[in-house]
Inverse folding.
């Protein structure tokens, strides 16, 4: 099986983090305006073809039994590739032995001070090692060729189905239109309140200024939430590259833990807005609406001390990284300063949300009993 040598370019990583949420959000909003009818669609079919077509999932999505054809072909790729892994060790071992024998032959040459008997023995040893290497390499080449043939057959099946999918979708939708009982609509999901959160009384208070802050953090939180979907695709690539193509990467893990670190910083204010942070609410839950607001105003002193300290130190931390052009020390060598820049940005958003909450709590306290 041919190896994968793809390394994610830095520009593609950063532009993907910016553009993917915009595109995904656009399609999600469009689907909310025009809910799907539950029948197969061409976009989802191609999505399955691209990500799991090697197992015929796109065919199963269309309720076509022809998807079974893909499974033995894919298993053939995996088997042949495993054989390549096994015989490759013999090839490497015999090649190393051949090189050692050739080195011994050079040292045994009469011109290098060796005797004729030692030279002939070394020469015979090189010939024997050459035969062993040729046999091992022939076996490796055989399994490599078999892997390429089976992988090529799988690729042909996928290309053919890519061309057939529009017609297959039309025929499947026609069948389901003729037999409405095959239509499976998604059940409506009710909002479920999570225990231990959503108890903040300030969530019910509205002012133009706090509404602006809440809207800002809501949009940023929803934006970075789409990054979790990117992780699904990237880790899928890593699994396939590692276990099917024997080409593990270094950049996948690094790119994802940096992405989730940035997501953690930028979504903190959104979680605070939605009252989703962990709270020891054994006592707090028993307070009245006004009592909760009083408790939140008192404890906000500690919140602002912490968050403003993080904002100040995070800004200095990020500026140092920008000035030196800091990047990772791995082979990928991605820039670190955008990651560290999310520390003061996230702290600033948290401070804004804290200010919004403080204003609301004061308004609750000032309400007439």
């Amino acid at each position: 099986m041919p190896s994968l040598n793809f390394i994610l370019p830095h520009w593609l990583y950063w532009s993907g983090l910016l553009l993917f949420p915009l595109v995904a959000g656009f399609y999600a909003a469009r689907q909310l305006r025009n809910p799907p009818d539950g029948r197969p669609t061409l976009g989802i079919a191609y999505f399955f073809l691209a990500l799991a077509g090697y197992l015929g999932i796109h065919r199963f999505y269309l309720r076509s039994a022809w998807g079974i054809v893909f499974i033995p072909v894919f298993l053939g790729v995996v088997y042949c590739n495993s054989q390549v892994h096994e015989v490759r060790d013999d090839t490497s071992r015999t090649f190393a032995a051949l090189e050692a024998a050739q080195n011994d032959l050079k040292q045994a040459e009469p011109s290098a001070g060796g005797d004729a008997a030692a030279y002939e023995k070394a020469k015979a040893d090189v010939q024997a090692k050459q035969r062993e290497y040729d046999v091992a390499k022939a076996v490796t080449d055989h399994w490599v060729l078999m892997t390429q043939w089976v992988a090529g057959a799988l690729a042909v099946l996928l290309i053919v189905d890519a061309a057939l999918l529009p017609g297959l979708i039309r025929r499947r939708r026609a069948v389901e239109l003729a037999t409405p009982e095959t239509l499976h609509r998604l059940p409506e999901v009710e909002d479920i309140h999570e225990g231990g959160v959503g108890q903040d009384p300030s969530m019910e208070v509205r002012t133009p200024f706090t509404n602006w802050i809440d809207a800002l953090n809501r949009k940023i939180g929803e934006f970075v939430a789409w990054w979790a979907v990117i992780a699904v695709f990237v880790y899928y690539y890593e699994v396939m590259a590692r276990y099917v193509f024997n080409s593990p990467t270094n950049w996948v893990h690094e790119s994802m833990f940096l992405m989730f670190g940035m997501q953690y910083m930028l979504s903190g204010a959104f979680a605070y807005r939605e009252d989703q942070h962990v709270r020891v609410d054994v006592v707090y839950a028993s307070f009245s609406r006004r009592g909760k607001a009083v408790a939140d105003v008192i404890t906000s002193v500690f919140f602002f001390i912490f968050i403003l300290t993080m904002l100040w130190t995070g800004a200095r931390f990020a500026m140092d990284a920008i000035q030196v052009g800091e990047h990772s020390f791995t082979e990928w060598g991605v820039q670190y300063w955008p990651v560290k820049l999310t520390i003061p940005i996230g702290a600033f958003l948290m401070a804004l949300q804290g200010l919004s909450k403080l204003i609301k709590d004061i308004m609750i306290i000032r309400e007439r009993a």
The mean pLDDT is 86. Residues 86 and 140 are 9 Å apart (CA to CA).
